[in-house]
Amino acid sequence: MSKKYEQLAADIIEKVGGQKNIQSAYHCQTRIRFSLADEQLADDEAIKNMDGVAGVIRNAGVYQVVIGTHVADVFEEVEKLADLSSASGKDEGKKEEKKGAMNTVIDFVSSVFQPIIPALSGAGMIKAVLALLTVFHFITNDSQTYILLNMFADSAFYFLPVLVAFTEAQKLKCNPILACVTALILMHPTWTGLVSAGVPVSLFEVIPFQLVNYANSVVPIILIILVQKYVEKWLNRIMPKSVNLIFVPMLTMIIMGTLALSIIGPLGNIVGSWLGVIFNYLAENAAWAPAVLVGGLLPVMVMFGIHNGIAPLGIMQMGTLGYDSIFGPGCVCSNMAQASAGAVVAFREKKRKEKQIATAGTITAYMGITEPLLYGVNLPKKYPLYASMIGGALGGLYAGLTHTHRFATGSSGLSAVLLYIGDNTMMFFYNILIAIVIACVSSAILTWILAIRFEKKNAKASSEKEDRKETSASKTSSKEIEMAPKAAKPSKAIVEACTPGTIAPLSTAKDEAFSEGLLGKGAVIEPDKGIVEAPFDGIISVFFPTAHAIGLMSDDGIEVLIHVGINTVELNGEHFTALAKQGERVQKGQTLLKFDKDAIAKAGYPTQTMVIVTNTPEFEDVEVVENLAFTNR
Questions:
Q1: Distance of alpha carbon 22 from alpha carbon 435, whole angstroms
Q2: What DSSP character marks residue 425?
Q3: Residue 439 pLDDT level (bands cut at 50, 70, 90)
Q4: CA dihedral 498, 502, 504, 508 (to 10 degrees)
Q5: What is the structure's pLDDT at 390?
Q6: 440 is catalytic
């Protein structure tokens, strides 16, 4: 292939800490995902500023470099330069990074389902094409052409347990071939024939096998391979090395085949049946809810990786009921809303580089890949993101109220509308088109309206900021942070203590991202009480869902991050109580958050509270006077 991405790949490798810092790497549709020996060595800002990089995300121990639709080309060069074939073994013996329960589940589900999405997407598009061919009477559904092409598509869904077994075994580091053999036992024609016959089956006339058809299922094989991991590990440990190659596979097949057909498979089938009950209940009583939530909140889900745990629910619903109404409709509405918001920005934008980013991101977003637009335009500007979330929710609401669902899994771009043709009707196709129009139009209108306000405000930001700072409080104590803006006239802006406690220099923080000032200058507080108060009058710009961190913007233009504890995001909100919300206007001294200091410390997390001025570069200096940055109350 072309060497056009070789330099970009080399720069990325250098800025993530070099080849020796890369434990492993792989890519999805838009991102290269690195497992790094030391994430602190990665230079986020340098990578973000590279031409060809849309953004950087740190999530659940995975360092993600957002590239875009050409990620495979960039990764090919990264793979060559970093010698990833040998890098895969670097993490042996490495202590596994501690993750919260939610991150662990999302990482597991994502690792199992993401690799099989291309197969399901391809099968879905074949079914969509078949639907078009039959609707326009090019072929009939009893013709050999239809039967054969439908067989091509059905194979991915029918043998879904085999695909899941393989990817799950890779994630759990057990033998993927033996995992596939276990899945194939469930799919063997002899077993399906016994199930169809309905005659009781038992092994040695002692162990009864439950007559269950496992085609298209997901839950049973997930539970089976979870158990197989430990069976295989136990057999490898007790079996002499001289006969390991023969007896471990044999015993694994016998043990797991027996457990799969007698206990674990039927148990998984029960769980799957209950999921079917839940799916049916949602479809009949709250069809609007999933589409609205996904349509409105998908960008936030993408930022935190939560979408990887929700998308498989649509696959499970499709395996159970034959259609997906949980993820698909809301996802396509959200993506089209984001694309429309980006189109408005691209049309209005005057700066050449930003216009190019918005235009390119809009095109890929209409094709179903939104990360370049999300991280390159909508999130930094904020107002297109807000508009797209509202538009996506409105489109999702219509899709939900009309019980719109898709009949195959695939991309969530414009081409996805074909997936809504099925069940011998065009009704779902027409409804998803209407939902998309609602999402696009409402998002575009809101983006235009908000742009008039926000872009005008940004254009005057510098002069207005100076005017505000000249009228800000002139009094300061030796227990306050002093910030001198880049202005001819000297002035000071004040950030007071957010919690009572002992003040210390930022260099004492137990996290290099803070101690080295990577996020900005500030100070550390060892809290005496479990409260966080507003350090000034202003707006809560970000209130993390886990409630461990708050971003605020003062009326003087100071942007502050208050981060309670080190790695406390892993607590997933436990021991934290939010008393305010994102977007709320607050007054100095108002209590924003309460936390159980003792419980957090008992869980093994430092309770240091960092107060960081995140827009430090906008000031001549941010200094802690006499190492006492805040007024203790």
A1: 44
A2: B
A3: very high
A4: -100
A5: 93
A6: no
Mean pLDDT of 573-583: 84
User: How many of the other CB atoms lie within 10 Å of CB of 285?
Assistant: 9
Task: Out of 307, 548, 563, 575, pick the active-site residue.
Answer: 563
According to DSSP, the residues that pair with 201 across neighbouring strands are 209
Angle formed at CA 199 by CA 197 and CA 205, multiple of 5 degrees: 140
Interstrand relation of 591-595 and 576-578 (parallel, antiparallel or unpaired): antiparallel
**Which contacts of 170-178 are long-range, i.e. CB under 8 A and separated by 24 or more positions?**
170/111, 170/115, 171/108, 171/111, 171/112, 172/225, 172/226, 172/229, 173/229, 174/225, 174/228, 174/229, 174/232, 174/233, 175/232, 175/249, 175/252, 178/228, 178/232, 178/249, 178/252, 178/253, 178/256
563 included as an active-site residue: yes
Is the separation of the CB atoms in 520 and 554 below 8 Å?
A: no
Report the C-alpha gap between 125 and 406 in whole angstroms.
11
Q: Flag the least confident range among 179-183, 209-213, 218-222, 243-247.
A: 243-247
Distances (CA, A) of 83 to 32, 62, 170, 340, 570: 15, 19, 20, 40, 32
Quick: pLDDT tens for 303-313: 665 666 677 77
- pLDDT class for 336, splitting at 50, 70, 90? very high
Q: Taking the CA atoms of 187, 189, 190 and 196 in sequence, report the sign of the dihedral they define.
A: positive
Q: Which residue has the higher pLDDT, 203 or 372?
A: 203
Cβ proximity of 444 and 343 under 8 Å: yes
Helix (H) or strand (E) holding 495: strand 493-495
The string of DSSP letters for 451-491 reads HHHHHHHHHTHHHHHHHHHHTS-----TTSEEEEESSSS--
Please identify which of the residues 28, 498, 548, 575 carries the catalytic annotation: 28
590-633: pLDDT as tens digits: 888 899 988 888 888 888 898 888 777 666 667 665 444 433 33
